[in-house]
Design a protein that fits this description.
single chain; alpha/beta; 2-enoyl-CoA Hydratase, Chain A, domain 1; Lyase 2-enoyl-coa Hydratase, Chain  A, domain 2; 4-stranded mixed sheet; 11 helices; globular
Length: 259
């Protein structure tokens, strides 16, 4: 992992990944995407980590793909490899066992907006903005559209994609792209409070629930109920579920074992 363009810190069962290309507005170069993939793989393998916060340094959260780097590519295969790598990275966020919270302090555009949409939760400063402006430069935001259209309604998603215009944090909250828009001075505390709240839960239970959430979304109603009933049955037999129920009935704090 390139420690200069991506920072990874772990404290109190919370991992913080920080994009650190401020001079490039945290544009997703090959190297930065590779570093993010590496950090996610490391976190996925560490059951002691219960929550991930995805943040950024500099004047923007993420400006999307590194267009200067993209323009150096000479073949269709080279271009395709960039979008394939980006898809792997976004999918890794969704499939990570731990919940991921986007902490958006400023503008998130194109694939940067895609990152926000791919995270499980998202908090933004009230001055942050979100856009899928590819249409303005002749490159429709087709891959960002995948994540965007899964968290925002069709009409708002198409408005963002077709106009390329940025939307403010309040609108993004209303459309479901982010959970909360807060004052910039309150952003760190709001994200920290939620991360600590989740970290206090059973890591096993949260992992099971996150995986089930995304899988059932792709099923029809009958399949979803059959699948989640099986998930809950397995979950019910786990030690943490038994401990949690016993603790609730005994009016005491649970002691999670992670299994």
């Amino acid at each position: 992992m390139d420690s200069s363009i991506l920072l990874l810190e772990v404290a109190d069962q919370i991992a913080t990944i920080t994009l650190n290309r401020p001079e490039a507005r945290n544009a997703l170069s090959f190297a930065l995407m590779t570093a993010i993939e590496g950090a996610l793989a490391k976190i996925a393998a560490d059951p002691a980590i219960k929550v991930v916060v995805l943040a950024a340094n500099g004047p923007a959260f993420c400006a999307g793909h590194d267009l200067k780097e993209m323009r150096t590519l000479q073949s269709r295969e080279q271009v395709a490899s960039v979008f394939a790598q980006c898809a792997r990275m976004m999918t890794a966020i969704v499939r990570l066992p731990q919940p991921v919270i986007a902490k958006v302090h400023a503008m998130a555009t194109a694939a940067g907006c895609q990152i926000v949409a791919s995270c499980d939760l998202a908090y933004a400063a009230d001055g942050a903005k979100f856009a899928t402006p590819g249409v303005n430069i002749g490159l429709f935001c087709s891959t960002p559209m995948v994540a965007l259209s899964r968290v925002v309604g069709r009409k708002p998603a198409m408005e963002m994609l077709l106009s390329g215009h940025p939307v403010d944090a309040a609108t993004a909250q209303g459309w479901g792209l982010i959970n909360h828009a807060v004052a910039a001075a309150e952003l760190d505390a709001a994200v920290s409070d939620m991360a600590r709240l989740i970290a206090a839960k059973s890591g096993y239970t949260v992992k099971v629930g996150k995986e089930a959430f995304y899988r059932q979304l792709e099923m029809d109603l009958d399949q979803a109920y059959a699948y989640t009933a099986e998930v809950m049955t397995t979950n019910m037999m786990a030690e943490d579920a038994r401990e949690g129920i016993d603790a609730f009935m005994g009016k005491r704090p649970p002691v999670w074992r992670g299994c």
